[in-house]
Every structure is written in C-alpha cells, then in structure tokens.
Design a protein that fits this description.
Number of domains: 1
Radius of gyration: 19 Å
Number of strands: 0
Oligomer: single chain
Order of helices and strands: HHHH
Helix content: over 70%
Shape: elongated
Distance between the termini: 21 Å
Number of helices: 4
Largest sheet: none
Length: 88
Amino acid sequence: MAAFARLLIIGFVVLTIVYISLSLYSRAVRRSKLEAEWEENRGPGTREDFVDRGLAAYEGSLRRKLILGVYIIPVIVVATIIYLTNFQ
C-alpha cells in the first residue's frame, strides 16, 4: 500500500509540473499570436488592451480546458494497466 501511495504522490507532483509548464507555454504562444495579430491589423486601442482582452477570452476557451487532460489521461491509463494486470 505504501508503494501505491508513493506512486500517487510522485505522479501527482510530476503531472502538476507538466500541467503548469504546458499551461504557461500555451499562454505564451497565445500572447505572441495576439501581439502579431495586433501588429498586422493595428486594431483600435493600445496593444496591451488588445492582448489583455484576447487573453481574457483565452481563459474560457476549450484549449485551456483540454490541458486538464494532463491529469485525466495518465490516471485512466495507469488504472487500466493495474486492472488488467491484477484481474485478467
């Protein structure tokens, strides 16, 4: 049981690091695309306002929610492997 608890703790820490890294990377890519779009179109308002509005829209986007799959998919795979190993 201690080995399983260690697996859960280490797995959670690793997945959290991956999630944070992926989230920061995705946000940085979105920011650079918004800045490039503003440079191309020179929309109304300042650059920072345009980028801030775009990032606020990004916060509610599907891509942001899909990044949570970093937690869900590995847990399902490990649970399936454990089940198949022990009960088949």
